[in-house]
Amino acid sequence: MGGQGKKYNLIFAIITFSVLLYSMPQVAWCKASGGQPGAFLSWGAGARSLGMGKAFVSIADDASATYWNPAGLAQIDRKEITALHAILWADTMYDFISYVHPITGIGTVGGSITRLYSGKFDGRDENNIPTHEFSDSQTALGASYGKQVVDVLALGASIKYVTHNLDDHKNGNFTIDIGGMYKSPMVEHLQVGLNLRNLIGMRTGAPTEDKLPLTLRFGFNYKLLRDKLALVVDLEKSKAPLSYHFGAEYWAFQYLAVRLGMDPEEFTLGFGIRYRDYGLDYAFATHDLGGSHRLSASWKFGPSITAASETMALEHYKEAVAAYERGLYQRAVEKLIRALSLDPKNIEAKSKLVKLERVAKIIPREVKETKRAKLIKQAVLSYLDGDIKLTLNALRYLLSVEPEDREVDRLLKTIARVEKVDLVEEITPGMSLVDQKLYNALNYFYEGKYDMTIREAHDVLKLEPNNALAYKRIGSAFFAMGQREKAKQAWNRSLQMNPADKTLRDFLDRWEERGYPEDRELEYLEELEKREWEFPGEKK
Predict the structure, then answer these.
(1) Which of 85, 126, 255, 341 has minimal Cβ neighbours within 10 Å of its Cβ?
(2) Angle at 33 between CA 109 and CA 115, to 5 degrees
């Protein structure tokens, strides 16, 4: 993108953040979500995201994606595990652990555990006499999956089992989340994320009226300074009023990042350190109940799934090439689709897939060793190489030979329409395309347009590589241009194709015996005229 585009992108980011900060309603800062069932699931995961005010649904590019947005799993390149431990207030602890596993050609799967624990509560009887000590524990077990659907869109889903243990009372909920991640093709460096939580719920355990609320979380992030700075906004809506989350992350060095953020409950700041496959993140948050520290660690291991996917994609691409070279056009389409599912950025595969789909809809396969099959194959190969002229010439030639061939006629018209080529009828009735081009070459020779003669003859050779007359006319054109060696080579090729051409053989034998000095060129051309040769072997 040019400097002007970058300038507009920067202005877009500044205006968006300014408007959101200015227009943010006061109601968004209330803490009405605290008493909702499953409220502990809004506490976040990973000190990195917590240091950014929990604005992470549009980033979610690490193992914490199982929590924030399962679609983000599609961005993960290697196996990864992350764990968070946070000491809160009044003997309360919050923990999160997640493991993600990319699988070549399938997507990325992950599992996570989220737990909020509060202990040392005094139990009392109806007379207010202490009886025992009990705890309050809330846990969510999750399984997630995410996959890149197309270049700009990834989708994902999670299934969770959420339990609440309060003394001897226990209940649970099965619930499903879905997420999406969209990278804008129009606004560079902009990515949007969406996570819809608790779509479907099923309660288990002791009877309760508690039901996990449907929660929508939407956000976007915009990157600046060569992607070193990320500005992030999340909007969250459930039964509680709309809440805002703002965050920023700046990678001052390749191994060190600083972060800050704010949301309805906290102001946060933190930092992160990366060394090879290891990461350590810290966040500090100020809260009405005091400050709290959050610490998480991560580890990446195993081979890169991107490299493995590209290797597999290349194999499928090679198989596609082998298929269409054999005339198996539908099979080639299937192989290219498979290759692109593994490597969506393969521009060459995309281009060939679009063209082959047009061919395969009309001619799925053509493998017979016939002239028709060879010409169709030549047309398709030329089409894939971008030689539209040769593509159309091959199909027009085949149609001139077999005018009732509806498949060829349909393919010719389809390609001409898509490529915006006007199919003007240029073939004389009773002639094939090859005949027409040989006749055109002859007329160009009469007119002294020797380069055009050679061009028309070469067009013939693309359709009929063993056409002796085309080589003969190329030789005559070179001879007239004074390029004797090229003329001899072309005429010899013509004799290889048609050894019975006695007139041309006599001419070459005489040339070998006497030679044709360049200063006597006109004389020998006149001699050709006396021998009644307009071309060698052809009479006036």
Answers:
(1) 126
(2) 40
Task: Give the model confidence (pLDDT) of 299-345 as tens digits.
Answer: 999 988 888 888 889 999 999 999 999 999 999 999 999 998 888 88
Give the number of other Cβ atoms within 10 Å of residue 511's Cβ.
Answer: 16
For the chain, list the domains and their CATH numbers.
40-301 (2.40.160.60), 307-418 (1.25.40), 433-530 (1.25.40.10)
Residues in the chain: 540
| Helix locations, 57-216, DSSP H | 65-68
pLDDT digits (tens, 9 = 90+) for 103-135: 987 899 999 999 988 866 555 556 666 666 667
Judge contact between 96 and 56, C-beta under 8 A.
no
Q: Three-state DSSP class for 478? A: helix
Q: At a CB cut-off of 8 Å and minimum separation 6, what does 363 contact?
A: 329, 376, 407, 411
Contact by Cβ (8 Å): 146, 73: yes
> What 3 state SS string does 218-239 have?
EEEEEEECCCCEEEEEEEEECC
Q: pLDDT digits over 200-211, tens only? A: 767 665 555 567
Strand ranges for 335-476 from DSSP E: none
Look up the pTM and report it.
0.65
